[in-house]
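Researcher: Next entry in the queue.
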Amino acid sequence: MSLTDALDEMVMSGILSPTIAMKVLSEFDKSVCRALNTSKNKTSIKGQLHTYRFCGNVWTFVVEDAHVHIAGADSVEKDVSVQLLKVVACDSKLSVAAGDV
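Model: Structure for this entry, 101 residues:
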């Protein structure tokens, strides 16, 4: 959310146009998608499901007291605990079909 907040602030102050801010978000999404496609890491999330919804082929989950375990392909493991975690997921086939990747 901090990228969105920073872009909103720049648009409000006149530093960026709304069109450029949307382009930045689009490029960010594409870059993250490419990076995740090449990643060999596996992640598990445990916690208390606070909210979930499915709208427009997009799942949104909000998990409280989340414990995230990340296992890398190079045998490096990491555990992270956060108070609130928001996960947004969509069908990657829909993104590719729309030309997002």
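Model: Residues 1-38 form one domain.
Researcher: Noted, moving on.
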